[in-house]
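2.7 Reproducibility. Because tokenized structures are sensitive to small changes in the input, we list the exact sequence used for Protein YciN, including any N-terminal residues retained from the expression construct. No trimming or masking was applied before prediction.
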Amino acid sequence: MMLTTTALSREALLERANAMLEAHDDYFPGVQVDGVEQKGDVLVFNGNFWLDEQGLPTAKSTRVFNLYKFLATELSKQYHLA
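Resulting structure tokens (single pass, no recycling of outputs):
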């Protein structure tokens, strides 16, 4: 089975992704994506990861990683970068 995805601009994808983040149960203020890349069939979103002073992950880092993974999983099924 081959899935057909819709092309969206970087700006449109980021707008849609940030709206999905705000509606997610794990959202907390300040979380947002500011970049997206196409890696094969997967959209990879990035933004702040809340690292500590030594550059190590914090408790918020895990939540943010899971939110970005959620976006990649959900949006890659529907869209590709125009």
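The first strand starts at residue 6 and ends at 8.
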